[in-house]
Specification:
- The complex is a heterotrimer of chains A (516), B (381) and C (192).
- With 516 residues, chain A is mainly α.
- Chain A contains 15 helices and two strands.
- Chain A has one domain: Up-down Bundle (Cytochrome C Oxidase, Chain A).
- Chain A is globular.
- Helix content of chain B is 44%, strand content 16%.
- Chain B has a five-stranded mixed beta sheet with strand order 3-2-1-5-8. Chain B has a five-stranded mixed beta sheet with strand order 4-10-9-6-7.
- In chain B, a hairpin with a 4-residue loop joins β6 and β7.
- Chain C has a five-stranded mixed beta sheet. Chain C has a four-stranded antiparallel beta sheet with strand order 2-4-8-6, with no helix packed on it.
- The N and C termini of chain C lie far apart (67 Å).
- Classes of the chains: A mainly alpha (516), B alpha+beta (381), C alpha+beta (192).
- At the A-C interface, α5, α6 and α7 of A face α1 and β9 of C.
Chain lengths: 516, 381, 192
């Protein structure tokens, strides 16, 4: 009955196996991570010192736009979907995803979306240059012709995410092994369930907003054009109605990964499991009523400013609960510091620092000084790089032995960690200072007073980039020639995924496991 | 061991003393500017206060949370032979660490709400300024005074491209700063003419989106005369980083004098429109205007950027009929990045720049435009 | 064709989720913009002023004076000369007032313009009523022609006490390419 994978390229093209698709998602996102990283390094190289040296301002804007789009939609989101594909069926004792054919489809449209997006770089007039937030009318009336390709690329990415989300919800709600009640599910499964609902709710809104742009550009409507009775500010409201939940889409699964890793290496069960679930749900719900904190300077009535300020501050309560729970999990544990744990601890510390600057940004009057400066850039990179990227990295190190059956090189993992940790802080911490000193974001050149901080940031960025090459090498070396890993891999870890062999067989849980 | 530690301490102390004694320290601190400016208005000082208050709250919370974390990372390690505890739930603890942050939030939010209400009170202003964002310059109009002008980046291209040393106010200097009186309540009305811009002067804590078709307001009461600089804070296209703001705050009398000067200059310019210039005068002035207003897109050598901004060297417009050339500069070209300069440049400036474009880079048309031609064109004649 | 609800729980759930997706898409395009407009109407957000107003109360409150400022901006690519005849006026709440804007088309082309109003403070938007305004429709001007564009307004008697100044801004947009030549000619002002 059980059979192995097909041979050759068609294995990957036609596969409906959750492990194959998970691997493809992960490799794809790794590739996009390097592509987005290249764009970031172009930005940092130009900003290494004041003056225009390497790129023209218009190309610089294309780089900031493409860096944002590729990292958000190409690197972080597919990586989380890849992890979900691999781990969710293994964690809930399901033989595969609920909708395997759709799973194949939702992956395979992604490369086309990004091929289309990247091809705009070579078009006349250049790639999108209006920032990843693509505010109208810069992205409509004043956009380069390639905007239409950008819109279609976003549509395809959105369709892929929506299909992925439907699949994950259907899997979690229908395919759990007998005895795996909702409140017994690992936290990664919980956070992904909630994330998938967020995706279902807001990805169509993103599709809607780009559709409205398309109609304004080509079909004479005036959603965002004041001349025809529309309103450019409406764009921002609709965009951020998508955009803020999107931010949590990129961080909730990270919470799940870290909640799996910290207990393993603290050798102590996760503290406050139920409160973690409730806090995640609370964050998800609150994310729908805080969007306008991205727009404090747009000229909202004061009642609006006050509402969004208080609602935003409120989010720090459930987020705080999570951090406290992780710390309480470590407290009185018996800790060791393997690479996944190092990345997870760095996640907790640096994500909390990002949370602090987020709390400062929530204070509307102070936001008038922070808004659209490097302080904001520092803030969201502190939540996204140590948040999303570090947690994904931690997850890869944690589960890689299960995926490929080989143990990674611990020394090299630690080198990767320390390079990345130092590189990240050297890159992004000075951005707090340049932002507070008054440097606006998305500028290709700046006054001399920002020069020193920018030079440090650029050095850090190249260090961080180098660290990822170590990561790539370590992953390949592990797969090709790593030492054999045990089935349990770690010291008595919790979860069904550790009950199957390493590497995980092509088909697992054909017979549902018994859940105690 | 102790000796080394003591030696190290002494060495560090010596180094610190040296650093403190050094007169360069103050200069270094200035160079490594790392905090928000307290600014020169009551609102900006409030905002600075809130910022610092929030910062210390965060530091406090951070010390507690990271403290516990580092202590357990140090004490509760397997290498120290600790056996793990097995507790994993505590309802009262969960409630406690929900309730305490909640209280802290309220303590943070109340002063912030108060400041916000103050920040929104734009009534009873004494001077009203209409600020319009353009790609990529600002226009200022003092309402009720009939003074209106454009403010362009004045940093030379040479500095930007690294052919000349960068000055202290690199990218933060303009040809015509906005002049305002000290100690008066000033209301800023902010709008835009093309895409969304954002008028931001950190020293006033004023940052408002300039949105095409809509008007926004904000205010400042500047307590100290001086020159204050800011930048556009919303991505507005190619030269977003090159549209600074300079506000020169002066005493009431000096401000009045500036207004008079501006009005006199406008009258003088009107007179110049009547004057006939020589070719050389127009060409020389044209080069200056071109480098300031046109070279950002069409480049100083008139080559443009293929596919984005057309070249002027040998272009059908620059070597075609002069009427059409004037029309393009005055009225712009609909649906392209070529804006209408009729409002932004004076008749003299447009005449000069047209003359320059028709004769530079080997265009050699040999003809010229006089200010009166531009004036007549603007009147539809 | 008879579509029955699928029996397979996975299919049923997927259909439900798919419908939610469609619903959210519809929400984004067809519900959010009108909802936002309604919200702006109620709160005065963005300073959009209302449509033509029918006078209900003609009592003039002479105890108060409201200073009304008029400003005008040309959107990019709009070469018309456009601005208010006077820059500001003082009115009593309830008083019928009138202001002329002047527009001229100096170009060699027939053009259509649309003026978009916006006013601050936003709280005043719902208390500023226009009984007649050129901004209610597009204005066409033949090449080289000019026109006087009148606007009549009343400041509501119920305007909050603290509002002393209202700034009304018009931004003029070039909307020529939305009209055919014939439409333009039938709309055109006769000129002066």
């Amino acid at each position: 009955m059980a059979h192995g994978p097909a041979k050759g390229f068609t294995r990957w093209l036609y596969t409906t196996n959750h492990k194959d698709i998970g691997s493809m998602y992960l490799w794809f996102s790794f590739a996009m991570f390097f592509l987005g990283g290249m764009f970031a390094l172009v930005i940092r190289a130009e900003l290494f010192q004041p003056g225009l040296q390497i790129v023209e301002p218009n190309f610089f804007n294309q780089m900031t736009t493409m860096h944002g789009l590729v990292m958000v939609f190409g690197a972080v989101m597919p990586a989380f979907v890849g992890l979900a594909n691999w781990m969710v069926p293994l964690m809930i004792g399901a033989p595969d995803m609920a909708l395997p054919r759709m799973n194949n489809w939702s992956f395979w449209i992604l490369p086309f979306a990004f091929a289309m997006l990247s091809s705009t770089l070579f078009m006349q007039g250049g790639a999108p240059n209006f920032g990843w937030t693509f505010y109208a009318p810069l992205s409509t009336t004043y956009a380069p012709p390639s905007v239409t390709f950008f819109i279609f690329a976003i549509h395809i990415m959105g369709a892929s995410s929506i299909m992925g989300a439907i699949n994950i919800i259907a899997t979690i709600l229908n395919m759990r092994a007998p005895g795996m009640t909702l409140m017994k599910m690992p936290l990664f499964v919980w956070t992904w369930l909630i994330t998938a609902f967020l995706l279902i709710a807001v990805m169509p809104v993103l599709a809607g907003v780009v559709t409205m742009m398309l109609m304004d550009i080509h079909f004479g409507t005036s959603f965002f054009d004041a001349a025809g009775g529309g309103d450019p500010v409406l764009f921002q409201h609709v965009f951020w109605f998508f955009g803020h939940p999107e931010v949590y889409i990129m961080i909730l699964p990270a919470f799940g990964i870290v909640s799996a890793i910290i207990p393993t290496f603290a050798r102590k069960p996760l503290f406050g499991y139920a409160s973690m679930v409730y806090a995640t749900a609370a964050i998800a719900i609150l994310s729908f009523v805080v969007w306008a904190h991205h727009m404090f300077t747009v000229g909202m009535p004061i009642a609006g400013e006050l509402f969004f300020m208080w609602a935003t501050m409120l989010i720090s309560v459930p987020t705080g609960v999570k951090v406290f729970n992780w710390v309480a999990t470590m407290f009185k544990g018996s800790m060791t510091f393997e690479t996944p744990m190092l990345f997870s601890i760095a996640f907790v510390i640096l994500f909390t620092i990002g949370g602090f600057s987020g709390l400062m940004l929530a204070i509307a009057p102070a936001d008038f000084q922070y808004h659209d400066t490097y302080f904001v850039v520092a803030h969201f990179h502190y939540v996204l790089v140590p948040g999303a990227i570090f947690s994904i990295t931690a997850g890869v190190y944690y589960w890689l032995p299960k995926w490929c059956g080989n143990m990674y090189n611990e020394t090299m993992g630690k080198i990767h960690f320390w390079l990345a940790f130092i590189g990240l802080n050297v890159t992004f911490f000075p951005m707090h200072f340049s932002g507070l000193a008054g440097m606006p974001r998305r500028i290709p050149d700046y006054n001399l007073m920002f020069a020193d901080w920018n030079m440090i940031s650029s050095v850090g960025a190249f260090l961080f980039g180098a660290a990822q090459v170590v990561f790539l090498y370590n992953v390949i070396a592990t797969i090709v020639s790593g030492k054999k890993a045990t089935d349990e891999v770690w010291d008595n870890p919790e979860g069904l995924e550790w009950t199957v062999a390493s590497p995980a067989p092509y088909h697992t849980f054909a017979e549902p496991p018994e859940v105690k | 061991m102790l000796k080394t530690a003591r030696g190290l301490c002494a060495w560090m102390l010596g180094f610190m003393c040296l650093l403190v004694a050094s007169s360069a320290l103050a200069e270094e601190a200035e160079r490594w500017k790392f905090n928000m400016t307290p600014g020169v208005t009551p609102v900006s000082q409030d905002v600075y206060g809130l910022h610092m208050q929030m910062f210390w709250w965060c530091v406090g919370i951070g010390v507690v949370v990271f403290g516990v974390m580092f202590v357990s990372m140090f004490l509760h390690r397997k290498s120290r032979g600790v056996k793990p505890a097995n507790f994993h739930e505590s309802t009262w603890l969960e409630l406690l660490w929900t309730a305490i942050p909640f209280v802290i939030l309220i303590l943070m939010g109340i002063p912030a709400s108060k400041s916000l209400i103050e920040l929104y009170d734009t009534e009873k202003s004494e001077v009203d300024v209409l600020i319009t964002g353009y790609q990529w310059r600002w226009k200022y109009e003092i309402l009720g005074e009939d003074v209106s002008f454009f403010s362009n980046l004045s940093t030379p291209r040479d500095q930007i491209e690294g052919h000349a040393e960068k000055s202290a106010n690199y990218l933060l200097e303009v040809d015509e700063p906005l002049v305002l009186p000290v100690g008066k309540k000033i209301r800023f009305l902010v709008t835009a003419s093309d895409v969304i811009h954002n008028w931001w002067v950190p020293a006033f804590a004023v940052k408002r989106d300039a949105i095409p078709g809509f008007i926004n307001d904000s205010w400042a009461k500047i307590e100290e005369p001086g020159i204050y600089r800011g930048q556009c804070a919303e991505l507005c296209g190619k030269d977003h980083g090159f549209m600074p703001i300079v506000v020169d705050v002066r005493s009431e009398a000096d401000y009045r004098a500036w207004l008079d000067e501006k009005k006199a200059a406008a009258a003088a310019l009107a007179e110049l429109t009547e004057k006939t210039f020589t070719f050389d005068e127009l060409y020389a002035k044209g080069e200056e205007i071109y480098n300031r207003s046109c070279a950002a897109c069409h480049l100083a050598d008139g080559e443009g950027v293929p596919g984005v901004f057309p070249a002027l060297k040998g272009s059908p417009v620059a070597v075609g009929p002069i009427d059409h050339h004037i029309d393009v500069v005055v009225n712009g070209v609909a649906g392209t990045a070529m804006q209408a300069f009729g409002e932004q440049l004076s008749e003299v400036d447009i005449a000069a720049v047209v003359t320059y474009e028709r004769n530079a880079w080997g265009n050699n048309m040999g003809d010229l435009a006089q200010p009166l031609d531009i004036y007549n064109h603007k009147q539809g004649k | 064709m008879n579509l029955s609800w699928p029996n397979n729980p996975i299919t049923a759930l997927s259909v439900k989720l798919g419908l939610t997706v469609c619903g959210m898409f519809v929400f984004a395009i067809w519900i959010m913009p009108p909802l936002y407009d309604a919200f702006c109407d109620i709160t005065g957000l963005n300073g959009k002023t209302g449509d033509k107003y029918e006078v209900v109360d003609t009592a003039v409150d002479t105890s108060r004076v409201i200073n009304v400022q008029f400003v005008a901006t040309n959107n990019e690519g709009m070469p018309w000369k456009f601005g208010p005849e006077i820059k500001q006026m003082s009115v009593h709440p309830g008083e019928q007032a009138m202001i002329n804007y002047l527009a001229s088309n100096p170009t060699g082309n027939d053009m259509v313009g649309q003026a978009i109003p916006s006013l601050v403070p936003y709280k005043a938007a719902n208390f500023f009523h226009k009984t007649e305004c050129f901004c209610f429709e597009q204005q066409a001007l033949l090449a080289g022609k000019d026109a006087i564009l009148p606007m009549m307004f009343i400041v509501d008697q119920d305007i909050p006490e603290h509002i002393k100044t209202i700034t009304l801004s018009y931004t003029l947009f070039d909307v020529t390419d939305r009209f055919s030549k014939d439409e333009l000619l039938s709309m055109a002002h006769d000129g002066l």
